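ok so for the tutorial part 2 we go from a plain amino acid sequence to predicted structure tokens. step 1 is just haveing the sequence, like this:
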Amino acid sequence: MLALIGRAESRGDYGIVSGFVPKALRPRDLTAMTVAEVQAWQKKVVEQGAKSSAAGFYQIIRKTLSEIVDAGAVLPSERFDKSCQDAAGAYLLRKRGLGEYLSGRKSLDAMMVSLAQEWASFPVPHDMQGSARWVRAGQSYYAGDGLNASGATVADVRAALVESKARFDGPFEVGEPGSGCLGARIVEALANLLKSMFGGK
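step 2 — the prediction. this is what the tokens look like for a chain of 201 residues:
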């Protein structure tokens, strides 16, 4: 699941920042910066008029990164490298209810909406009120804001989630935010979801 999100959001690049950030303001190496330095950079680019502060594999914006830090999922002193960004992505998946979905306490459509609300590249599964306007199935939840568009199809995301749930059994094990522990079953579930989406690549 984490890899699926990264491919849709950033084409799999941990060092990428939003294309709405002027080239002159883009960092030389995002993954060499600490989380605190990334937060300072995000604040700076927003103050200088950038339309988005999204950064990294999961295209995490300033507000969301602050939430992740406040929850203790990552530390300000950590490098914003692959390990750190994956921990941030895992926290967001947990917050959006992946555990509830895998254990049968959240519906497929509700899970898809949750993903679409967190990551603009994921489509909504049905016509609904989006962030800025009414959106149709397959569109980004944030369609109409002038910044975001869906980067995956409803069919692909639905099939991947169904396959992941079919392969998952037993209790959903995940540590509290900041514990650094996803648990063996969530790792397996994420791997299965990626395999079903991309053939194991």
